[in-house]
Amino acid sequence: MSHAGHRDDLLRVEDLTTRFYTEEGQVNAVESVSFDVRDNEILGIVGESGSGKSVTALSAIDLVDSPGKITGGEVWLRDAELAGEFRGDKPEAVDGDFVDLRQLPTGVRRALRGPKFSMIFQDPMSSFNPSLTVGEQIAEAVEVQRRASANPRSTRSRTQGYGLGKLLVDSVVPGRKYTSDESHERAIELLDQVGIPDPVERADEYPHQFSGGMLQRAMVAQALAGEPDVLFADEPTTALDVTIQAQILDLLRDIQQEQGMSVVLITHDLGVIARMCDRVGVMYAGEVVERGSLEAVFDDPTHPYTQGLLGSIPDVDDPAPRLEPIEGNVPNLLDSEMPDRCYFADRCPKAMEACLEHPEERAVEGDRRHTARCVLADDEYDPERALDESQFEGGDGE
Amino acid sequence: MIAPRTIRSLKRGLSRNALAKVGIAIVVVVLFVAIFAPFVAPDRPGTQNLNESRQPPIGFEKATTQEVPVKENGSVVFEDGQIVTENRTVYENSSWDHPLGTDGNGRDILSRLIYGARVSLLVGFFGTGLAMLVGVTVGLTAGYYRGKVDDVLMRSADVMLAFPSIVLAIALIGVLQDALEQSIPDPFVQTGVAPAFRSALGLPTGMPESTTLPGTIIVVVALVNWVWFARVARGEALSLREESYVKAARALGANDASIMFRHVLPNAITPILVLGTIQIAAIILLESALSFLGFSSANISWGFDIALGRQYQSTAWWISAMPGLAIVITVIGLNLVGDWLRDALDPGIEGEGGV
Q: CA-CA to B66 of 20 to 30 Å: which in A200, A309, B49, B179?
């Protein structure tokens, strides 16, 4: 626990680092990322494709799969009950009401998915199993939580009452049901809650019979099955057309307020962030380059990348016909090609000599909760000290 | 599990594919005949009648002229130190009692084929089922967990493949001996339904009261052929585990076993079933080969009957040819059904899509 937390913090992610070990080499997908999620808020994470937004969310809920590996960092969750349970055994994993999930056993971490964390994905069409009905899949999510809460002490609880043989038979033999009637009824309630008309009939339909927007609603319903405290929404509207996007965003906000949960909204759409979020983190090349309240980041961006992002949105009120794109491309995150300097330096219009050293995350002057990974956070741009092309010696992979 | 869409594309495939209908007809007939053997078999498959040995099938009766010694008072006649012979016409009669002829011991070939179908299909279906169970479990586990688990499981599968299947099967039979042989009583004969039916029609009664279930052969063919299922299941699992719905299930707290069986397996089932139909044919062939070589304890079996006819190849070809034809037709039928399933269920033909 390094920096002072806010008293409303629900989840504090610190220095989370995820690597992918691919055939081309090590990819630094998430590089020492820190963010916090407070009670009852929507936190936006914004960045270009390939900036590590999704992997950050997957890392936070421990869903990174080989060849990826979380190599460092801490994920502190506020859970008094869990903290009490581990205070004796693992004092280093407990701090007040917070527990560091990275130090807990795998079984415990899995048990948190559902009741603590849940996630909805980008493409609703591929996020449902085509061979099961939508209702059945939502009921399954309910059933998993029901069985877990029926037997909270046991890590085997998720298969409780389900030997492997019964599981196999119920899954493969047509007409056999894996889920109970209660779970099915709850699934229908959830479908109703997310605004699906005729939930009773729709529950018995297959995913291909749903439209994209309806399916995204169904996925929200599925994510709500465990009554999560934090819902990660990974580009929930990218695959949908614009009118449906607005509906889904409204739904997410309504549900968030109704349930009093927190949402981490991952998107590349600055408009969505501006419309939905209380606070925002901007990601670039696997790092959070700037974070703070929506007002602080959007009205007073410190990092030149954030400034560039905001400068590249067309503004209806501004008659200026030219947008200002950020020159160059996102680096490919291969470890061997990542420079020691600031990752953004070679695209940065305000790069200075100080940028040859990789910057730490530092508080922006005048706002302790607004931080940027940039020398400009507590310095002024000085053309005298500007970095010119010749100073990029080697290691930038060009 | 079977979506209406699947059934529609199966029907469409059937209407476009006349061969598929032939295949289904063959499989249905073979199944029917095997199940109702005590009703359809014209004669007892095991009873010898040396007076009627080597009768040709219907349509192959012929008269030949043979040189036979002239006998007087039961002894051959000599003239100038030579046996006196004469040319006589010898008839090889066929009879409707034995439409496909009789073997060297005068047993009805058709009845033996009908009873042999039981053995072949038992081995084919149970052997494939067992191979599927083992192979799919191994393949799903390997593909789902990847990494070291995958390496260990699939490399051992490769080792299995490195052996010629017949040699491996013979070695396994040597280990297992006939420990798993079972004799299943024939319910139709036991309950007296079949004998009553037969005597009402005036057919010979006294059909066998049980059928051999060659457990050793079933286990052996499964142990030889599971690798194919493992490979297909692994490939499917490798691709399906990357689907968003698998990730979604994990995000919702589902455990590995339920993800494998509920989200991976049902979506991998199509290629596995297609492989299954084709494997039944392959396993029937393997069973025939093993019976031919004398490694099966079943004494009525297509492969075994081919072996019986081998010594009569030059004079009574039908003893070997008829069971050989039975194998060919059944295997072709199963392969046609397999082709139809593959064509109809191939996702390339009917895409995913909304309504």
A: B49
β-strand pairing of A279-284 with A42-47? parallel
Say if A196 falls within a structural domain: yes
The number of folded domains in chain A is 1
Tens of pLDDT, residues B312-321: 888 889 999 9
- Assigned token pair, A375: 């020398």
Find the helix or strand (DSSP H, E) in which B214 lies: strand B210-214
Q: What is the number of H-type helices and E-type strands within chain B?
A: 14, 8
Ramachandran angles phi, psi of A34, nearest 5°: -125, 140
The domains of chain B are located at: 4-57+99-345, 60-93
Peptide bond into A67 cis (omega under 30): yes
8 Å CB contact of B245 and A66: no
Per the structure, the complete domain to which residue A164 belongs is given by 127-228
**ipTM surpassing 0.85:** no
- Asked if residues B43 and B97 have their Cβ atoms less than 8 Å apart, the reply is yes
Q: Which CATH class is domain B4-57+99-345?
A: mainly alpha
B261 touches chain A (CB under 8 A): yes
Assessment of whether the complete model's pTM goes beyond 0.95: no
Beta strand extents in chain A (DSSP E only): 9-22, 25-38, 42-47, 68-78, 94-95, 98-100, 117-120, 230-234, 262-267, 279-284, 287-293, 362-364, 367-372
A289, B60, B111, B284, B303 from B328: Cα distances, Å: 70, 21, 18, 10, 12
